[in-house]
Amino acid sequence: MADPEPSSTTEELARILDQGNDTAMDTAEDQPEDEDEGEQESVAKAGYCIECEDYYRLTSPNVDQPAELTCEDCADLFCEVCFHATHRKGHRKRHASKPLSGAPSQKKAKPPKPSSKPEPEDEENWDVEPTPLDSATLAGDQPDLYESPAEWFVERSRWIPLRLTYEERKYLRLIEAALNVSEYTDKVDTLGFGLSKAKRIVQQIRELCAILSGLVLAADYKLGQELFQDRNFEANADFYQHVFELARRHKIMNPEKMRTSYGKLVYVLMDAQIPQVRAMLDFTCVKPIKTVHSILSEHNALGLLRDDLITIATREISSEKRSRREIQKDIRAKERAIETLATRYATDTLSTEMVRQCLYSIGDNNAFLRVNRDPCEKMIEYLKKFFHPTAPADAKSSLAIRSGKGGARLSHDHAKQYAFDGSGADNFFDAGSCIDGRLTSAWNWCSSIEKKQYWPVFLLTGFTSFDGEW
Questions:
Q1: Alpha carbon distance 400, 53 (integer Å)
Q2: Side-chain half-sphere CA neighbours of 166 within 13 A
Q3: Domains of the chain and CATH, by start
Q4: Distance separating alpha carbons of residues 441 and 462, to the nearest angstrom
Q5: Angle at CA 247, nearest 5°, toward 298 and 445?
Q6: Where are the beta strands (DSSP E) in 91-249?
Q7: What confidence tens digit (pLDDT) does each residue in 61-111 have?
């Protein structure tokens, strides 16, 4: 019996499928190779830095930065500045690199004289300029972008402490621990043991140094053995001076830290400077604070502070009322300025990392001043603008206060209140009505809470101090 012929519907379906397959293949063959232009543009040109290619593609498409290094781990090509910028921290810091064959050799040259314009080879790199500073910037702030800093940064850097390094932060934790367990302020003022006050001070300072020595030995046995093998405090004077100095430096940059232990440290260092105590100790515990100016002056690199790029490298980038694109643009400009300066002013004795530390320290100081100083400056500006120092224009513009009215505890006339006068007291009702007086009263109350009858209730809740630590 003959097989039945396929139905017309089946034949039509097969024909349509075959025709669609052929059409799809023809369409794929006729597709132009460069249709996905965006994907092709994402590939860096051979022989050029991949970071510069990504950065300037949208803003300066004709800028090409030749590659100088190849990262053996990333398998990418970089110019020297971009390689150090992208491999500065994290796991990438351990990546190995090697120079490309035919790349120009990097010779160290003397720092160039500062000029009002970027160097010729960097003119295209700075085509994307960071956003200028606000015109309402308070007086005394750093110079505007690309404005010659002259001696402004040189003078300002004398009072800017150097940011702590990673190794110094280890010692910071040790000195904080030693101060927390030390009973210096309790025993120095206690009469007993037939010792004079000078001898009690020397005894407690030696005990604090011994505690610190034990912590160092526990943290790093090899270093502890080298430093304290002979148990000679005078021989290790440099070490103790360094540890005490970095604690002071940390407190200057972070006033909210070490609220309890720093007071004890100040008492120790003040007592250690008494001539009789210094003679008995045979060494001094105090040395000058390490600042940006002192480090650069020591290595003959003060030219860094006069370079035009330092304004960009140290400015604070604010996100207020700005788009993400503007913020990212300023961040990239700041990073490139930092790396350029680090490469330009590094020497055999001054590493690029130390140059970065100096620049970061200036940036930290700018951020600190903006948060802590600028609001006060703005308040004083408003006070002078809207109020007369002695004679108010009318009752609404008078700053006078009267006890019992509007929560005031004291009576001040307009002129006295205009001068921000405040008075402290040991209770709420006698406390001053101004900020200074209230803060003083709060400090007095907090310092004597252990003597209150309800102090055990605080202890039951797990309270230890007002420093925010539990």
A1: 64
A2: 2
A3: 43-99 (4.10.640), 142-161+291-372 (no CATH), 166-281 (no CATH), 389-460 (no CATH)
A4: 24
A5: 140
A6: 97-99
A7: 445 678 888 888 888 888 887 888 888 777 788 888 888 875 544 443 344
